[in-house]
């Protein structure tokens, strides 16, 4: 029985020790363990694999993928970074730019502004096509001029009081329908994802007048098309207390982990430590610095449980 437990741990857990990490490599391939059926089976895979949405909010998504290998988890990460299409500024037509930002730098900054538009509504633009159409192009205009505020106090030195439109934000980009896009998208709200992205600073008399063409693309072609800023994954932490830890030792153990991982309960007048939420831990391995604690805790990660975090 002990040998089976050791084998199961080797197959299912990556163990963190004081001076190294054990069971790093995947070993559950066919024929490696007598008595284990490790040949790939679609039905068994479908039963074991699942995706759990943990947190979904504006600009962030966290989900778990359970029952897969690192290669598959990394494939999903790379697909999110490089293969999911979005709309982004591809061409910038500069009609007037008297700001201190050079035309090329301005075009580059505009290209990196994320656009809120469903790419499934558009086709990829054919290579070599210079003119956009309503089915493959979104058009935005940025036209703004800085002027003095005649009502500003004479002693004021605050640009926010002295000038109008001295800060050019992404909110100043307006959608200009191409062709019959007004009929194609009657309820559309095409605009930058964030309204407060600073594009340039102006002073009285300076202005920017540009027209932008957004096209459909993928991150493999250019990073501006990537729908996520970061896409990462980590293995689910697994923390096991090998024996009861009480009183001062319990309080010291709680300080060794991230907030919320260890909680202290009052049981029959004694402070007793228990693992509340191992998921929150970052595995600093601080516990191994304490002689009285390092042999009372086992730190591991679940080999086939991936916590995936994506931020846009």
TrEMBL record:
Domain DNA-directed RNA polymerase RpoA/D/Rpb3-type: residue ranges: 60-312
Keywords: DNA-directed RNA polymerase, Nucleus, Transcription
Record GO terms (molecular function): DNA binding; DNA-directed RNA polymerase activity; protein dimerization activity
GO biological process: DNA-templated transcription
Main location: nucleus
Family under the similarity heading: Belongs to the archaeal Rpo3/eukaryotic RPB3 RNA polymerase subunit family.
GO cellular component: RNA polymerase I complex; RNA polymerase III complex
Compartments in which it is found: Nucleus
Top-level taxon of origin: Eukaryota
Pfam families recorded: RNA_pol_A_bac
Annotated PROSITE patterns: RNA_POL_D_30KD (PS00446)
Protein name: DNA-directed RNA polymerases I and III subunit RPAC1
Organism name: Accipiter nisus (Eurasian sparrowhawk)
CDD domains per UniProt: RNAP_I_II_AC40 (cd07032)
């Amino acid at each position: 029985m002990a040998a089976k437990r050791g084998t199961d741990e080797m197959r299912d857990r990556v163990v963190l020790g004081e001076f190294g990490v054990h069971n790093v490599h995947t070993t559950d391939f066919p024929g490696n363990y007598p008595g284990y059926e490790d040949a790939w089976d679609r039905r068994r895979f479908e039963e074991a694999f699942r995706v759990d949405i943990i947190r979904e909010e504006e600009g962030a998504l966290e989900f778990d993928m359970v029952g897969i290998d690192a290669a598959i988890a990394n494939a999903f990460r790379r697909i999110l970074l490089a293969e999911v299409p979005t709309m982004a500024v591809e061409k910038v037509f500069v009609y007037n730019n008297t700001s201190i930002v050079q035309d090329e730098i301005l075009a580059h900054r505009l290209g990196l502004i994320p656009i809120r538009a469903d790419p499934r509504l558009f086709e990829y633009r054919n290579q070599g096509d210079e003119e956009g159409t309503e089915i493959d192009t979104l058009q935005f205009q940025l036209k703004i001029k800085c002027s003095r505020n005649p009502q500003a106090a004479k002693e004021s030195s605050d640009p926010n009081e002295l000038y109008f439109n001295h800060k050019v934000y992404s909110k100043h980009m307006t959608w200009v329908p191409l062709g019959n896009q007004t009929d194609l998208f009657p309820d559309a709200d095409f605009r930058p994802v964030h309204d407060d992205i600073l594009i340039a600073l102006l002073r009285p008399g300076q202005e920017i007048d540009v027209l932008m063409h957004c096209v459909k693309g993928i991150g493999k072609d250019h990073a501006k098309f990537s729908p996520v800023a970061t896409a990462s994954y980590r293995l689910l932490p697994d923390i096991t207390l090998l024996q009861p830890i009480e009183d001062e030792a319990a309080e010291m153990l709680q300080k060794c982990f991230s907030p919320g991982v260890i909680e202290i309960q009052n049981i029959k007048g004694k402070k007793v430590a228990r693992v509340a939420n191992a998921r929150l831990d970052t595995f600093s391995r601080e516990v191994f610095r304490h002689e009285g604690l390092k042999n009372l805790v086992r730190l591991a990660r679940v080999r086939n449980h991936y916590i995936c975090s994506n931020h846009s």
